[in-house]
Amino acid sequence: MLQVCLNGARSRAECFPLPVTPEELTAAAREAVAVGAEDIHLHPKDGDGRDTLEAAPVAAAVSAVRAAVPGIPVGVTTGAWATADPRARAAQVRAWTVLPDHASVNWHEDGAAHISAALLDRGIGIEAGVYSGTPAAQRFLAWPGSRRVLRVLAEITETTPDDAPRAADGLLDELASVTAPILLHGEDAAAWPVLRLAVSRRLDARIGLEDVLHLPDGTPARSNADLVRRARAIIQGTPQGIS
Fold this sequence. Notes:
It is a single chain. By secondary structure, the chain is of the alpha/beta class. The protein has a single domain, classed as Aldolase class I (TIM Barrel, Alpha-Beta Barrel), CATH 3.20.20.70. 37% of the residues lie in helices and 15% in strands. Strands 1-2-3-4-5-6-7-8 form an 8-stranded parallel beta barrel, surrounded by 7 helices. The longest helix has 14 residues, at 55-68.
């Protein structure tokens, strides 16, 4: 499975083509799905372009994107940078009026179990975010509900092309007992090497402007579709994906 991560916690100051509004997210999702994305992860934004978990922006973003790409699962973040207090974050999840298909929960952040319980209570799939270089794997595996997640996001925080694959191998070893699908991804300069590793290990993968702003040859990506198109070529082993 190839997921597109449309925007992340980035701002337009970092990336001018970044989709922020529901209308922009809709267009970006439609383009990404047309070239091979099979799942969507997005960060709803408030009027100032900052990540938010408030019900109205979540409903607007999820509803717009879901209508544009029917049948494609749509997920959101529950990152602590949006709302620091985990109990307040859980309350926001419980107040959502439009439910995403899944939401990511970062297990290196305090209160991951509270957020996960709120998601499970509402029937929302959990993407368990497990960062390399943190105690997240141990915390997640010790959680009694670890077998109830939709998938595990193995997130490689090392950003050099040499260090990231080694860190990925180590994290995957830590997650060897996981029964849910694993989606492996990296960021910045490591995004493409880690995607290739995910393909070689037959794992789910993701790409998008949240993770990387450049194509494998260093050319700035013009859109999420640019990134998905190149990732799909790598997955299929076509000449476009060979570098």
